[in-house]
Amino acid sequence: MSRPQQVARPIVRSLQQATGSAATCPSRLLAIRQFSLTPSRKDETTTSTPAEPSAETHKLAADAALLGQTKPPPYPSMIKQGTEQQLSQFLSPQLGSRRRRAALATTGNVPFEQLPYQCFQEARKVLAQDREEKVAKIVAETAKIRRLEAMDASIYRGGEAYKQKRLESLRQYVEKLKILADINDPMVKRRFEDGKGDMNKPIYRYLAHRKWCSMERKIILQRIEQFHIVPDLLPKFEPTMAVQMTFRGYKVSPGATLNSRITETAPTLRMQVFDKGERLISVVVLDADVPDAETDSFSKRLHFMATNIPWSPTKNSLPLSRLGSDSASPDMGALTVPWLPAFAQKGSPYHRLAVFILEQNNNSPLDTAKLQELYDGQGREGFSLKSFRDKFGLTPVGFNMFRTVWDENTADVMARHGIPGADVEFTRTRVMSLKPPRKARGWEAKRQKLKYRHLWKYTKRIKGIKY
């Protein structure tokens, strides 16, 4: 074999493999182009002349610039090759790890439970057998609960209290068995990662709670301690509900400092509860750092309140801007105090805007007219969350927060909403010392007479001595 044939054979073989793989696997098309002076790129795409951006596009870009974020592009259906950062720009993060995304790109339309991997199928058989055992235990424990409910409580030494305690223990054990029956099922994990899990089932609520406790809850607890939410607003607080906040479609991290124009409209809350059943909740947004010049201290101001909002594990989004509008559905709750934009006067420190979710005890609705009479208008000033909680029997379950400072848009926002105080500027009062003036001392101070003129060049601006 000649030398040119030895050199050309690997090239021909690679081209044949590329052509064959492109014909057999449409999801991984390889671009074959003619010889040119420029090297080829795997992520090369055709370009076209972009259209002129509209006014709405400019507005969205301005909002993203104020938040320091970029609007993610729509997720395409095909998988591109590249680094993890490049893949994250084109793929939904709900698809899981990079290994799973690569598997989705290479397996085509094969159902997940029918993947041709022997170890995977054998493991599914073991998991199915374990699930049957757990289901049998659930049936036995459920029958035991029915028998216990039908029995008379007088046969027990503890009476009715012992019977109810025993029933509660058995019900908790049944819920635990329901979770253990599906905790290792790959189909359950896949549906949960894709965001298609039914939150009415305990396994998906358990997975969601475990995911929330892994990072998001730790961040919320850190913000509560870092910004002294406890004890400034509540003497004790432990969140049990996941609360995320978005302004104009952009997710806001807890404690972020936002521009006044972004917070001019009410946010959208994404909330998730982890226990079954429907309940009534209230949403309260308050400013914890309102300066009071007369008393030289800080007070609190109520910025938003909504009550009697029905909530369940299957719900996850609550747009606060729609509450009280004509397009709002009757089951969204009642708007008690409308949204007041977040603002801070010039010279004042940052203001902590706290968002609290409070659960109404026994699902009893609150009197909206009474709340409006108490807290709307002048009742916003000096609002106390602890007093509101104790007066109406509420339990705080969720929390999030953001901060606001004086910026270039604050004066315009205050003018548009008729909020006075845009011309107020807070300055620090200089406290003069009460000590008597001290005479100049030291070697330089003793030699400031004219006869020591030749030594003045060695002095270093002695305070209180004029040349």
UniProtKB/TrEMBL annotation:
Function: Component of the mitochondrial ribosome (mitoribosome), a dedicated translation machinery responsible for the synthesis of mitochondrial genome-encoded proteins, including at least some of the essential transmembrane subunits of the mitochondrial respiratory chain. The mitoribosomes are attached to the mitochondrial inner membrane and translation products are cotranslationally integrated into the membrane.
UniProt cross-references to Pfam families, sorted A to Z: PBP (PF01161)
Region feature Disordered, mapped onto this chain: 36-57
Record keywords: Mitochondrion
Domain of life: Eukaryota
A single GO cellular-component term on record: mitochondrion
Positions of transmembrane segments: none
Compartments reported by the entry: Mitochondrion
Gene3D superfamilies according to UniProt: 1.20.58.1180, PEBP-like
Keyword Mitochondrion set for record: yes
SUPFAM superfamilies per the UniProt record, alphabetical: PEBP-like
Protein's UniProt name: Large ribosomal subunit protein mL38
Family the UniProt entry places it in: Belongs to the phosphatidylethanolamine-binding protein family. Mitochondrion-specific ribosomal protein mL38 subfamily.
Transmembrane helix is among the record's keywords: no
